[in-house]
Amino acid sequence: MPLANVALQRDPKSTAPSKLADTNEQLPPRLPNVKAGSDRASLSLRSVSPQPATQRQTSFTFQPRTPVIMGEATYRGNLPVDGLVSGQLLASGSALTVKQRPRNGRNGSTPELDGEICFKDVLRINGHIAGKVLSEKGTLIIDASAQADAYIEVGVAMINGTVNGDIVARERVELGLAAVINGNISTPKLSIKPGAVFHGDCCMLKNGASLQK
Q1: β 69-78/113-125 pair status
Q2: Residues 6 or more apart from 30 whose CB is under 8 A from it?
Q3: Helix, strand, or coil (residue 83)
Q4: Which of 140, 149, 201, 209 is geometrically suited to a Cys-Cys bond with 205, CB 3.0 to 4.6 A?
């Protein structure tokens, strides 16, 4: 009877190759894996830059038009608002900022200011107003794109736009190239450039004279 093989000793008759060795040769090398715990030092966390907060895309864009008047003035009357109003409205005094939407036409049919405007130094009109414009010694400038359906009594009137009403200037009146006047002019000095249109009567006053209406 043959002796039993010693434990833990490989049988020399066994010539079968190791299946584990063959398997390791056929499989591709294992990639480093943090979860597996291999090659952790070669792995680094990439910092992700915060994405800027995207603004809400809205189809509404507000582009305010040029203010109807520019300068320091006191106004009493109506102000139709088609836009944004910001500031404070108090009994003792007010500070309001009005941003109007632009109009499609050159001049709207409705005045942007309808009332009485009083100023001291210089006032520029860029839009459509109606009512009265008063100043003892101030200078009034009416832009070429502006329209004034108003009675005007100022120190100096420099007009490049349209005026529907009488004009009284204690010092002088200057009509620019695009000026259109539908009314009477009362002033000591009158200057009319070629291209201006004047429909009305002219009354030459003495210096400092006034016609209150």
Answers
A1: antiparallel
A2: 36, 38
A3: strand
A4: 209
